[in-house]
Amino acid sequence: MPTIDQTQAWRSLQDKAQQVGQRHLCDMFRQDQGRFATFSREAAGLKLDLSKQRWDQDTLADLLRLAEEAGVPAATQRLLAGEKVNISEDRPALHTALRLPADATLVVEGEDLVPAVHATLDKMATMVERFHSGQWRGATGKPIRDVVNLGVGGSDLGPLMVTHALADYRPQGTHPVEVHFASTMDGSQLVDYLTRFDPETTLFVLSSKSFTTIDTLSNANTARDWLLSRLVGSRQEGVDHELVLRQHFIGVSASPEKMAEWGIACDHQLEFWEWVGGRYSLWGGIGLPIALVIGMEGFRALLAGAHTMDVHFQKAPLADNLPVLLALAGIWNNNFLDIRAHSILPYDGRLEYFAAYLEQLEMESNGKSVTNDGDTVDYSTCPVLWGQLGPNAQHAFYQLLHQGTQAVECDFIAPLARYEDVEDPATREHLMGQHRLTLANCFAQSRVLMLGDDAIAEDGPRPEHKRYRGNQPSTTLLLERLTPETLGALIALYEHKVFVQATIWGINPFDQWGVELGKKIANETRDIIEGRQGLDDMDDSTRGLIEATWQASRER
Ligand code: F6P
Questions:
Q1: Which of 105, 169, 427, 493 is deepest in the core (most CB within 10 A)?
Q2: Is residue 298 part of a domain?
Q3: Per-residue pLDDT for 400 more than 70?
Q4: Which among 315, 430, 466, 519 is annotated as catalytic?
């Protein structure tokens, strides 16, 4: 079977890159006044403007042909039907099943998955209700006030990003529960909580698909000993080890055995399935912190928004399909225009962690160089992707975007409306003005990146150091409002974008073998640092670093 770079569409795109790719965005806009209408699409409360990509209609037609030749439509149906698309791990990737409505059916290997998915959601709902009614009590009888999620990667970034984005949607009149996150193995975040929180009213959620991740288990063990040393026997009779574990820990994992072994009570476990990848898992039990912040109704609205995008992805023709178009813009930049850097720039402080979330979603999924057939690719796959809140990044790394030597693709993301419901009229006016200011900056930056010097109507020559070359391609994504529904749709949009790109590149976006060796070597290195294994055969640099560690501990 020919690889993707041997297809007709690929070759035609290489030719187009020589022509269209050499044209400046300025000229494209001058010659085609209707680019916005031609290259914008809407779905699920999102508007996608791809007119500032360095392409024309013929290029897009070729890219769509490339998607056809790569088998994107059939691959999409296989993904959503629960076929084993995660080839190296021989299992489906069914995060979309987690957001199916209760009356749907999805039969995979003879079993309808939907009832079990909704049974977990119902168990979550019962837990959330206990917290919000003040009925979830610690071992000494006080209602829990602080919930700390201990998890890393997909067991941290999704819930962290969404709880921050949707904090405005807290239900009114419930018992106050604050949600916090600790992910780093060095304990820096956790130690801060341990010095500030009251053990009697603090509960930890151990979130780990595998329940073997050393980062999370180290934090969990520290948290457990902190609680036990402060609560057992000290204040109240009957407060024993078992009661503390029961009342202060919830586990979320695909391994109920490991949760039970660690000491999580059976009815305080939320289970999910091996067919949900870690970075795709915020839609089920891993989303418990989200449901604690926005309530179960809000959480179900998040799922509904994602499901709307799933249906769009499944049914819309390729030429109108948001995830497909977003993916194709990335393929065009990466594989044909040689643009290998991609910046994510939300213009809304609530999306502070969105770029960090996408860094894992995109780079852990598509940072691969071997195809599903075991061949090494001879084309580029996932670009380097990073980002930050756009307004803050304007005062940090935009200099490079405007005048540096790197070509960078940017995604600008912003809600169209905000703050209309602020009660105090004067504050509302101020905040709505700030929102307009933010939109103005968002649109101005993508415009200057596109047009360069042409954005300024100024006579006379300017010195070189004040010139802007422009021609940096970008996508703008506008949300009607930032709500649970539109955020769900936005996340699902990027999930499917990643899948479409992986299908075109012929790689598996659902495994992450590249992270395993580092974990193994870290275990061996720890044994050496702690003196359980010798330094023989160690490379000179690592030997020097380990010896410096020993030296430092001798001097303490
Ligand atoms: O090491 C990478 C990884 O496996 C990610 O894919 C995952 O999201 C993260 O670690 C956490 O894994 P777990 O949820 O099993 O603790």
A1: 493
A2: no
A3: yes
A4: 519
Long-range Cβ contacts of 263-266 (<8 Å, 24+ apart):
263/224, 264/206
Question: What string of H, E and C letters represents the secondary structure of 63-116?
Answer: HHHHHHHCCHHHHHHHHHHCCCCEHHHCECCCHHHHHCCCCCCCEECCEECHHH
Model pLDDT for residues 464-518, shown as the tens digit of each residue: 998 899 999 999 999 999 999 999 999 999 999 999 999 999 999 999 999 999 9
What's the CA gap between 479 and 394, in Å, rounded? 21
For residue 537, the enclosing domain spans 517-555
Domain end position, chosen among 291, 307, 340: 291
**How much is the pLDDT for 176?**
95
Helix (H, G, I), strand (E, B) or coil at 94: coil
Distance in Å, CA 276 to ligand 1 centroid: 12
Per-residue confidence (pLDDT) for residue 234, from 0 to 100: 65
Instruction: Quote the mean pLDDT of the chain.
Output: 96
Q: Is the pLDDT of residue 453 over 90?
A: no
What pLDDT sits at residue 556?
81
Distance 460 CA to ligand 1 centre (A): 57
- For residue 343, what is the enclosing H or E element? strand 341-346
Q: Which residue has the tokens 């030296």?
A: 551
Q: Does 392 lie in the same domain as 354?
A: yes
The answer to whether position 81 is within a domain reads no
pLDDT in tens, 11-39: 999 999 999 888 999 999 999 989 999 99
> If you take atom 2 of ligand 1, which residue's CA is the nearest one?
515
Specify the pLDDT at position 349: 98
- How far apart CA 116 and CA 126 sit, in angstroms, is 15
Residue tagged active-site, from 200, 362, 364, 409 = 364
* Co-location of 132 and 277 in the same domain: yes
Q: Hey, whose CA ends up nearest to atom 8 of ligand 1?
A: 154
Residues with CB under 6 A from ligand 1: 152-155, 208-210, 213, 216, 278-279, 364, 512, 515
Are residues 243 and 365 located together in one domain of the fold?
no
pTM comes to 0.97
Same domain for 351 and 387, yes or no, is yes
Residue 159 placed within a domain = yes
